[in-house]
TrEMBL record, chain B:
Protein name per UniProt: LPPG:FO 2-phospho-L-lactate transferase
EC number: 2.7.8.-
Annotated GO MF terms: LPPG:FO 2-phospho-L-lactate transferase activity; magnesium ion binding
SUPFAM superfamilies: CofD-like
Superkingdom of the organism of origin: Archaea
Keywords: Magnesium, Transferase
Pfam families named in the record: CofD
Native source organism of the sequence: Methanoculleus bourgensis (strain ATCC 43281 / DSM 3045 / OCM 15 / MS2)
Length: 301, 301
């Protein structure tokens, strides 16, 4: 089994290749939940949903979130009624938020709710929220703090930010399922997700870093080529959290546990001992190529 | 100004007929909140919504609730993702519920939220909830407690009704209701099953006193010629009356000046006014409205 740490875009692109290559049951994905938010009365878990929809084969892969061919009837009427949902929630997507909202209101853990959703959607891979307790990423601006989803989705990341903070009522703790998945894996792969907002929240869950340090095969893929991220708002966020927006900055976050660090062949930044691969997964074939290379690294064939 | 008390389907049909005679701006509707419940994280208020939808010209008059031509993408997807709803919520109706819930979360009273929605949908009539206190009714079936509207729309016809349990007993009538009733020439209680909503309105603290100063016309929903719907009968028995005009008369007699029953109703109620009360099509509703307005003009002039 291979366990992945995932956010909402980079790692799912790698997973797309892995799903072509591996038995679905041999894949576990530990997913960032620090972008979760209650919206219109229900529970949105953007990264969990993206991973779940990807594996279920219903993901809208034009934008890497939401359900393909969804309709937006409720969302559109809400706008006419003066309620602007900051993210365009599709009608089917909303059903998932509603089902999860009801399960959480009924006292279920997020892990159990995710499992129930996955079973119904025919997902045989193991999708694990990093923690069951709420933790939220906010960006700091001069005017105050803003939920990361609002910053990234509503404002398209076009605001000057001064920092990134995580807020939670209690310090987040990795679930037993998360630790067990890491321990039972032949390798742990950190895909090219945003180190600050996608991967760091997972690493901050008590128990994860220790489990990764104990693991002898942790592979990380840098999301940067030079100072530009392959996709997403990583650069500004890295800077805002005092890290260099590059593979070097990324490596700095992972170096205490990473065994193999993968950089893009075009990346001008030199990291000693790093492995160079084509990490630009611009289409399905590229995802598959990178997945093949990583699986070969792990199993040797 | 004429105020209708509405809690079911018959009054809505009568209001539809009355709109041929009265300007919308001369109509006020005090809607029952007995059917209110929380569904999928938002506030369902079927009787309020039905009145709003009627004036907006979008009511599904086949069943007298919900929006005509609505779609059910979210509702239909829910069972696929481990969810489910007690009754079918349309995508557009859901938007209306979510919008109202957002207004309630912002601290508006139900009355303020409903007024805002009426403005958003450019409705000329006044639609008001009977009370701002949460007063949804649960039906005790002996094995479980179902929200009244869920019982009405989805329970098996032979489901036992032991007791009707309101969330709040005698919730206070609102100032807005007080103002419209005091400004009304007459109050009309349409041919709704009293136990489905009208009684909840009459039970609001202050309501019967308000009505005692007004000219009140009530129309019996039962005409004796066909066996009443089993759920209508069960609800009437649950409030201690038979499903007959006489049973309805006993529930209303303190509040009503003129009691209208059908021409062919075998029940003899002294002093009642006999009219054609079947509202199968719009013409009949308009005709009944004409007759009632004539009675009102005669009485209050």
């Amino acid at each position: 089994m291979i366990t992945f740490l995932s956010g909402g875009t980079g790692t799912p692109k790698l997973l797309r290749g892995m799903l072509d290559l591996l038995e679905e049951r041999d894949i576990a994905v530990i997913v960032n939940t620090a972008e979760d938010i209650w919206l219109s009365g229900n529970h949105l878990s953007p990264d969990v949903d993206t991973v779940m929809y990807l594996v279920a084969g219903v993901l809208n892969t034009d934008r890497w979130w939401g359900i393909r061919d969804d309709t937006y009837i409720t969302h559109d009427l809400l706008a006419r009624l003066g309620i602007e949902e900051f993210i365009a929630v599709g009608d089917r997507d909303r059903a998932v938020h509603v089902a999860r909202g009801e399960m959480l209101r009924g006292g279920m853990r997020l892990t159990e709710a995710t499992k129930a959703l996955c079973e119904r959607l025919g997902v045989r891979a193991t999708v694990l929220p990093m923690t069951d307790s709420p933790v939220t990423t906010y960006v700091k601006m001069r005017q105050g703090e803003m939920h990361f989803q609002e910053y990234w989705v509503k404002h398209r990341g076009a605001l000057a930010i001064e920092g990134v903070v995580r807020r939670s009522r209690e310090p987040p703790v990795a679930t037993p399922e998360v630790i067990a998945a890491i321990e039972a894996s032949d390798a742990v792969v950190i895909g090219p997700s945003n180190p600050v907002t996608s991967i760091s929240p997972i690493l901050e869950c008590a128990g994860v870093r220790e489990a990764l340090r104990r693991h002898r095969r942790v592979i990380a893929v840098s999301p940067f080529i030079g100072d530009a991220p392959v996709s997403g708002p990583a650069a500004a966020l890295m800077r805002a959290s005092g890290r260099e927006p590059s593979s070097a900055g990324t490596y700095g976050l992972y170096e205490d546990f990473v065994d193999i660090f993968i950089q893009d062949i075009r990346d001008p930044v030199e990291i000693e001992g790093a492995l160079r691969l084509d990490t630009l997964m611009v289409y399905r074939g590229k995802s598959l190529d990178l997945a093949k290379s990583i699986v070969t690294l792990i199993y040797g064939y | 100004m004429i105020t209708f008390l509405s809690g079911g389907t018959g009054t809505l049909a009568l209001i539809r007929g009355s709109r041929q005679i009265l300007h919308d701006s001369d109509i006020a509707v005090v809607a029952s909140t007995a059917g209110d419940s929380w569904v999928s994280g938002s506030h369902a208020a079927p009787d309020i919504d039905a009145a709003i939808f009627l004036f907006a010209g979008i009511l599904d008059t086949g069943r007298w609730w919900g929006i005509r031509g609505d779609t059910y993408a979210t509702h239909n997807y829910l069972p696929k993702v481990a969810g489910g709803e007690p009754f079918p919520v349309g995508d557009r109706a859901r938007a209306v519920q979510i919008a109202r819930t957002n207004l309630l979360r912002r601290g508006m009273t139900l009355t303020e939220a409903v007024q805002a929605q009426c403005r958003a949908l450019s409705i000329g009539a006044t639609v008001l909830p009977a009370t701002d206190t949460e007063a949804g009714v649960l039906v005790d079936t002996g094995t479980e407690r179902l929200p009244l509207f869920e019982y009405w729309t989805c329970a098996a016809a032979d489901t036992e009704v032991r007791e009707l349990i309101p969330a709040t007993r005698e919730p206070p009538v609102t100032d807005a209701v007080r103002v419209v009733i005091e400004a009304s020439d007459a109050v009309i209680i349409g041919p709704d099953n009293p136990a489905r909503g009208i009684l909840s309105i009459l039970d609001c603290a202050g309501m019967r006193d308000l009505l005692s100063d007004r000219f009140v016309v009530a129309v019996s929903p039962f005409s004796g010629d066909v066996a009443p719907d089993p759920k209508d009968a069960a609800l009437m028995y649950a409030v201690g009356e038979k499903p007959t005009s006489y049973g309805v008369f006993r529930l209303y007699r303190d509040a009503v000046d003129v009691f209208v029953q059908d021409l062919h109703d075998p029940d003899e109620i002294p002093g009642s006014l006999r009219l054609e009360t079947h509202l199968l099509h719009d013409r009949q509703a308009e005709s009944l409205a004409w007759d009632i307005m004539a009675v009102i003009r005669h009485a209050v002039s």
